[in-house]
């Protein structure tokens, strides 16, 4: 007769062992490993010899919102707002149609300054600290994510998606509008993994409610995976939807306060070898993997 299996006191770690690709490396999963991290040249991220930016394609007629995105101003979605507000001119005339085709010889200005699409594409990965704004500019003089990228590129870049001011973790920045559009849009199902620390343990019935999809005021909040961490108030959540404050709102809907929130995985990327507040260029292999996912 087989002996009954002893239940683990660390269910999240047990889940991680069974499905090693579900949740990327974090502090609480690394504790279960016995092997030392690889230090081979193939696995190590090189900071002394970062990959060169990719060259852009020759400039062809381009939609105005795409033109702004490729100029490193903002994402295409945000560009539509700027265009509607009359902040963009083409040949000194205000254009409010984001589908307006910009010709190679046109002069485009954003807030009075001439802009042009990037000639070199840049892809950066930042481990964002707390109290940092996910935007290119802040009128109140607060630190933004671009304060951590100046030493790597002089190109005009912007963040893909956003993280709340007090949310930490992985954030991608680029001047490649098509790349940003694909990664940010939920239809491409690029998954993000979060480690949420709650003010109290997550009840089993609430765990099941989240797992089976909560109905929020703006629609269903579908998660791709959820698991307990090393403590019952530490929860790993994997999802691909990107609605505003979605992870916090999932727990707040059930009357939990999120004390800490950290994005530990973005697609195939993890925080390995990237301390808080540090930024690096993506390797060529990482770019290819992300472009394949999108």
Q: Can you give keywords for this protein?
A:
single chain; 294 residues; alpha+beta; Structural Genomics Hypothetical 15.5 Kd Protein In mrcA-pckA Intergenic Region, Chain A; Alpha-Beta Plaits; 3 domains; four-stranded antiparallel beta sheet; 8 helices; 19 strands; elongated
In short:
The protein is α+β, with helices and mostly antiparallel strands. The protein has 3 domains: 58-115, Roll (Structural Genomics Hypothetical 15.5 Kd Protein In mrcA-pckA Intergenic Region, Chain A), CATH 3.10.290; 120-175 and 275-293, Pseudouridine synthase I, catalytic domain, N-terminal subdomain (Alpha-Beta Plaits, 2-Layer Sandwich), CATH 3.30.70; 191-266, Alpha-L RNA-binding motif (Alpha-Beta Plaits, 2-Layer Sandwich), CATH 3.30.70.1560. The chain has helices spanning 11-18, 27-30, 64-70, 76-84, 177-184, 204-211, 246-252, 284-293; strands spanning 54-55, 62-63, 88-90, 93-94, 101-102, 108-110, 113-115, 120-121, 123-128, 158-159, 168-174, 192-198, 214-216, 219-221, 225-228, 234-239, 258-266, 269-270, 279-281.
How would you portray this structure in words?
This protein is 21% helix and 24% strand. The chain has 294 residues and is of the alpha+beta class. The longest helix has 10 residues, at 284-293. The radius of gyration is 21 Å and the shape is elongated.
What's the tally of helices? Answer: 8
Tell me the CATH architecture of the largest domain: 2-Layer Sandwich
Task: Flag low-confidence runs.
Answer: 7-22, 24-51, 53-58
Shape: elongated
Number of self-contained structural domains: 3
């Amino acid at each position: 007769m087989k002996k009954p299996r002893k239940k683990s006191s660390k269910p999240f770690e047990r889940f991680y062992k069974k499905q090693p690709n579900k949740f990327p490396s974090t502090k609480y999963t690394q504790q279960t490993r016995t092997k030392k991290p690889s230090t081979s040249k193939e696995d190590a991220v090189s900071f002394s010899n970062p990959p060169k930016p990719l060259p852009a394609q020759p400039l062809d007629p381009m939609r105005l919102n795409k033109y702004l995105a490729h100029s490193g101003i903002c994402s295409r979605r945000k560009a539509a707002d700027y265009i509607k507000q009359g902040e963009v001119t083409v040949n000194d005339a205000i254009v409010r149609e984001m589908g307006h085709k910009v010709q190679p010889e046109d002069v485009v200005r954003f807030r009075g300054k001439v802009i042009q699409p990037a000639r070199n594409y840049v892809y950066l990965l930042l481990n964002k600290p707390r109290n940092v704004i996910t935007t290119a500019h802040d009128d109140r003089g607060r630190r933004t994510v671009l304060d951590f990228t100046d030493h790597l590129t002089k190109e005009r870049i912007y963040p893909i998606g956003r993280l709340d001011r007090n949310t930490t973790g992985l954030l991608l920045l680029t001047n490649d509008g098509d790349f940003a559009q694909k990664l940010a849009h939920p239809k491409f199902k690029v998954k993000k993994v979060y480690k949420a620390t709650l003010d109290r343990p997550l009840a089993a019935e609430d765990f099941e409610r989240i797992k089976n999809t909560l109905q929020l005021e703006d629609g269903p909040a579908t998660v791709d995976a959820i698991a307990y961490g090393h403590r019952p108030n530490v929860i790993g959540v994997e999802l691909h939807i990107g609605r505003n404050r979605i992870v916090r709102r999932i727990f707040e809907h059930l009357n939990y306060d999120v004390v800490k929130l950290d994005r530990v995985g973005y697609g195939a990327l993890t925080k390995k070898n990237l301390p808080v507040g540090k930024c690096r260029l993506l390797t060529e292999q990482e770019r290819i993997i992300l472009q394949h996912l999108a």
